[in-house]
Amino acid sequence: MSAVPVFEGNERDAGVVEEICGYLTQQPPRSYFLFAGAGSGKTRTLVEVLRRLTGVTEHEKGAVLASRLRMHGRSIRVVTYTKNAVAVINGRLGVNDLVQVSTIHSFCWELIGGFDDDIREALVAVKRTQLAEMVAKAERKKNGVSDTDRRNFAEVEEEIQGYVAATTFKYHPDKSTQGPGAIQHQHVLDATAWLLHNRPTLRTILRDRHPVVLIDESQDTMKSVLDALMAVAKPEASGLTLGLLGDHRQRIYHDGHEDLPSLVPSDWATPELRMNHRSQARIVTLINTIWASQLEGRTQPATGVEQHARTEKTGGVVRVFVGATSKSKEDKALGERWCSAQMNALTGAEAWTSDAYQLLALEHKLVAVRGSFPQVFEAMLLIDKNAAAPSGSGENTGPASVRFLLNELAELQDCFSDDGSFDEFAVTEVLRRHDRLAVLPADATARAARIDELMTAIAEFGARCSDPSSTVAQVIAPVLAARMFEPDSRLQDAFDDESAPPAPPGKGEEETKQARMRRGWCALFAAPWVELRKYRRYLAGNSVLATHQVVKGSEFEHVMVVMDDEEAGGFLISYDKLLGGKDLSSTDKSNKELGKETTIDRTLRLLYVTCSRARESLALVLWSADPAAALGRIKASGWFTGDEICSVP
Ligand SMILES: Nc1ncnc2c1ncn2[C@@H]1O[C@H](COP(=O)(O)OP(=O)(O)OP(=O)(O)O)[C@@H](O)[C@H]1O
C-alpha cells in the first residue's frame, strides 16, 4: 500500500496541483470546482497545472494529454476576468500553443463571430424574452402600463428591428463598435449563452476546439454563459471538461451566481486551497472571523475553507476607527488623516504618513467625492450609467458620446505647460493623430488662415484650461467654435441646445430618457473642468483611489478601507448596517424571510474582499450615523480586540 502524502504548514496545499492534474487526465476526465480563497495563489496553481498538462513540466499523464491535444489541433482554454489577468497568465506560462488564454468576451466572440444568421436569431430571441418580461412586469403594476413603459417597449422593439435588418454583426472585445450591426459586450455574452443552449453544433465546435475549459473568477462570471457551459459539461452532453476556480466570498459583481458552490454537480471534484500566502496572521484571522459570523440579516451560508497564514507571517496590525458621518467632507478627510497617523505610530510604516498606503473607497460615488470629481461623475451617470464607472472587464473608456472630452481634449491639454505655453509640435501631432491635418485646405492662403484660426482657438483653450474656475462649457467652446475636431454629434447637439435642464423627477415619478440625458449634458457643461482630468484618471484605473477593478486580484502592503454609506449614495451596500450603527430596514428583513440576498450579504462580501487585499496592516474607517451604537456593537461582535477599536475624535 502506498502512503498518501500529508502536507502541513506552508506546504498544506502542495498536493492540489497533482490532484487537479489527476482529475483532468483520468478517463473520462472529471470537471472540478476549486475553492481558492483570497491570497491562496490560484494563479500559481493554475499555471502549474497547465505546465504539467501541456508537457512543459514533466508529467506522465500530462504528456499523453499534450500529445493528444497536439494531434487533433486542440488546446486548453483559460477564461479570465480581465485583460490584465490574461497578460499575467501568459507571462508566467510563456509561449505555449496548447493553451489559449482570453477574457470571456474574446472567448465568446471567437465562438460565435461570423455566424451572422445564428447571432441574429439569438439576439432577437433574447430581446423578445426581455420584452415579454417587461410587458408582464408593467401589467402587474397597480396603475397599469404607463406612457414611459410604452416608450421603453418601443425602444426594445426598435432594437429588435435593428437586429433583423443587420446583415453582419460587428464587435470588438476591447473597444466599442458603432454603426449598423455593431453589438456590445452584453449582446455577445447573451447570444453565446443562447446559442450554446440551442445549437448542438456550437457545442460540438467548442468541445472539438477546447476539450478542457478553465474559468478563473468563476464567482463573478456572467451566469448565463456559465450555466450554458455547465450544461455542455454534463456527461450526457458533449463531454466538455470544465474547471471553475473561484471564491464565492469574493463575489462583487451582480453577473455571477449567488451561491455557486451549491450549484456544483455532485459528480464534480471539489479540491480546496487552504493557505493564505498574502497576509499576516492577524489579517487572515480577521477575514476568517468576518466570513464565519452569524449576523442578523445574513442569508448566504458561511461555506468555504478556513484559511491558514504562512508560518512566518505571525504579525499584522488591524484597527477599526469609528466617527460620525454627519461631519463635513473636509472634516472626514482630516479624520482619515488622523487615522493614518495612528497607523503610522502603531506600525512604524512610513507609508501611512507619506500617502503610500492604498485607500479603498469602493463605491464609485464615494470615490468621486473623495477624489474631487463628484459633479462630472454625477453627469456621466445621467448620460450613460453603464459606462460612467470603470467595470471589471474590458477597457474603461467612459460614455461613448463624451469620448472627445476624454481623448482628444485630454491629449490637447497635455501639450500645455503649467505656465500656459504650449508645444506646437505636440499639438500638431495630436491633430495628425485624429486626422485633422488631412482636412486642411489645399490652397496656401486658405490653409494659413485656417491654421491661424486653429492656433487662436488652441491658445484660448489652454488659457481656459489653466483657470481653475473654468467650467467644461467654457473650455470646450473655442474648440467647438473652431471645429477643431469631430466630436460625437450627440455632444455637439447637446452643446448647441440652449434649453434649460429639466427638473429632476420627484419621488416615485418616472423620467424619460431624453430628460435624463438633457440633465446629464447640462450638469456636465456646468461642471468644473478640473474634475474631468481626475475622472479620467479614475476611469483608467490610475487613481490612488481604488475601484472594484483595481481591487480584483490586487494586493497592497497597507490598506485603509473608508466606509461611508451617506456619501456612497447607494442602497445596495451599507457598512453602517453591517457594523452596527444602523438597524435593518423592513425590506432587509423581508428579503431575509424570502431567502433573497440582503444588504448584509453584499456588504459582508465587499468587506471580505477589501480586508483581504492587505499584506501587513489594515485600517477600517467607519463613518456612522450613530457612532456610539456602532462602537458598542463592534465591541460585541468579537471581530476585534478592545485595543483595536478606536473612536475618531
Ligand atoms: N505557494 C506560494 N508560496 C509563497 N507565496 C505564494 C504562493 N502562492 C502565492 N504566493 C504569493 O501570495 C500572494 C497572493 O497570491 P495570488 O495573488 O496569486 O492569490 P489569489 O489566489 O489570486 O488571491 P485573490 O483571489 O485574493 O486575488 C502573492 O503575493 C503571491 O506571490
UniProtKB/TrEMBL annotation:
UniProt cross-references to Pfam families, sorted A to Z: AAA_19
Key word NADP present: no
Tree of life domain: Bacteria
Regions that span the bilayer: none
InterPro entries in the record: DNA_helicase_UvrD/REP, P-loop_NTPase, UvrD-like_ATP-bd
Annotated residues for binding of ATP: A36, G37, A38, G39, S40, G41, K42, T43
Signal peptide location: none
Stretches the record annotates as Disordered: 493-514
Start and end residues of each UvrD-like helicase ATP-binding domain: 15-294
GO terms, biological process: recombinational repair
UniProt GO molecular function: 3'-5' DNA helicase activity; ATP binding; DNA binding; hydrolase activity
Keyword Nucleotide-binding: yes
UniProt keyword list: ATP-binding, Helicase, Hydrolase, Nucleotide-binding
Protein name listed in UniProt: DNA 3'-5' helicase II
Naturally occurring in which organism (per UniProt): Pseudorhodoferax soli
